[in-house]
Design a protein that fits this description.
By secondary structure, the protein is of the alpha/beta class. The protein has helices at about 30-45, 65-70, 80-90, 95-100, 115-125, 150-160, 160-170, 175-180, 195-205, 210-220, 230-245, 245-255, and strands at about 5-10, 15-20, 50-55, 60, 105-110, 115, 125-130, 135, 175, 185-190.
Length: about 270
């Protein structure tokens, strides 16, 4: 099977492109899921990477699971209920565990349909921007199934329980403007401007020190399930680390000297 993720790098920004336009970038094979796991493991140890852009090739961002395989009970949908449970746990559920947990800021550039697991994939990212042609649906219920890859945890944290319930219970599709109004995406742009806008945003993020970015993202993640007092303790610990980095010294010095900083991820 051809490689699913096409990786490009520009400076401190990595662009990850799902590259199976014939299947609308459907997540249908364990090897695709392992590519996400392997990529996150590589990025976790590369401290020169300060931002990631995730997008799709062709007309779709990601169409979710392969419905024909569901119908035939083939591939990742084969086997007994026990086997199928293990397939989810050892397959697609690895993606939210590695991608959502990655300390590097991730921008989803939603170029087209983000359906089912495709929507959940976008929700695993920190920021979403969309083409005017993008469509979004938490559509599992229309196939008689449930969000199996973390959508029931991710989506309410972005748009709130009532709107997430509406999407999950109806399975209806919303367009980019509705997604913007609901806070599912932060920006909507013309299709031919999407990638340049995503890269420009990633570049703005990547101008900042890598250590501070990773620690900041970790605090935001941990803050979703910690008490305030616990988060303040963690913040104090992270802050003490940040104060002793060379990049902090460079940031303060360059500010005082009114010049552009030169960060070395140290």
């Amino acid at each position: 099977m051809a490689q699913f993720l096409n990786i490009e790098r520009t400076g401190n920004v990595v662009v990850v492109r799902m590259s199976s336009p014939d299947t609308r970038n459907a997540l249908s094979d364990p090897s695709q899921m392992q590519e996400f796991v392997d990529l996150c493991a590589e990025l976790r140890t590369d401290h020169s990477v300060r931002a990631v852009v995730l997008t799709g090739s062709g007309k779709a961002f990601c169409a979710g699971g392969n419905i024909k395989d569901m119908q035939r009970r083939e591939g990742i949908f084969a086997g007994s209920p026990y086997e199928l449970r293990d397939t989810y746990r050892n397959g697609i559920q690895k993606i939210p565990l590695c991608l959502y947990d990655l300390d590097i800021p991730i921008i989803a550039a939603v170029n087209g349909a983000a359906i089912g697991a495709g929507l959940d994939l976008a929700c695993m990212c920190d920021i979403r921007i969309a083409s005017k042609t993008a469509k979004f649906a938490e559509s599992f219920v229309k196939l008689g199934i449930v969000p199996g890859d973390g959508g029931a945890w991710l989506l309410p944290r972005i748009i709130g329980i009532p709107k997430a319930s509406l999407m999950a219970f109806t399975g209806d599709t919303i367009d980019a403007e509705q997604a913007l109004a609901w806070g599912l995406v932060e920006q909507v742009c013309e299709p031919d401007e999407l990638e340049s806008e995503a890269l420009a945003l990633a570049a703005r993020i990547a101008e900042n020190p890598g250590h501070a970015l990773r620690l900041c993202k970790r605090l935001l993640r941990e803050g979703q399930h910690m008490r305030l007092d616990s988060l303040l303790e963690l913040s104090a610990a992270y802050q003490s680390l940040a104060h002793h980095t060379k990049d902090h010294e460079e940031a303060v010095t360059s500010f005082v000297e009114k010049r552009k900083p030169n960060f070395l991820d140290q």
